[in-house]
Design brief:
160 residues; elongated
Length: 160
């Protein structure tokens, strides 16, 4: 690997701290910094972008998967239905993404197909197994009898 020089400006106490860490690990300060930069780059690979998926792809996936997603009766049923079509759903941030089952390529957000994570939690009455967001407020609403859409009918009574 070819290395190119980079100049960084840091406060003196940060430089002393870096030198102490490097000495304790028997490394150079440059090795410590390169390791941290490499770790940060790896962490950001595959990070979600604010851009929406390719519209023609979303339209094709919507035609192919919407009926299956709407017909699913639970998370295992949804996974099975999508698998038969060659796709899978995975947790991503606070929602879900659709991936090619063979390549693992991320294709779009489930919400772009009209099936946001919250909507599926309401439908299945439980969070996706293994998803970091447990959607407790939705489950509390379900237990309290709040309508599945989250909006109770409002009845106004007016005096004559």
């Amino acid at each position: 690997m070819t290395l190119e020089p980079v100049t960084l400006s840091m406060p003196p106490e940060m430089i002393r701290g870096l030198e102490r860490i490097a000495e304790a690990r028997d490394l150079t300060p440059g090795q410590i910094v390169r390791g941290l930069v490499e770790k940060e780059l790896k962490r950001n690979i595959g990070a979600k972008t604010p851009n929406r998926a390719d519209e023609p792809l979303v339209a094709r996936l919507q035609r192919l998967l919407a009926a299956e997603m709407a017909s699913a009766h639970g998370w295992a049923d949804l996974a099975g239905r999508l698998s038969l079509k060659g796709y899978e759903v995975r947790p991503a941030g606070g929602g879900l993404t659709i991936h090619d089952r063979v390549t693992g390529a991320r294709l779009c957000k489930s919400s772009e197909l009209g099936f946001a994570y919250a909507r599926l939690v309401r439908k299945f009455r439980c969070p996706m197994p293994g998803h970091p967001h447990r959607m407790q407020q939705i489950l509390n609403d379900i237990a309290a009898g709040v309508s599945p859409d989250g909006d109770d009918d409002l009845i106004l009574i007016e005096d004559d």
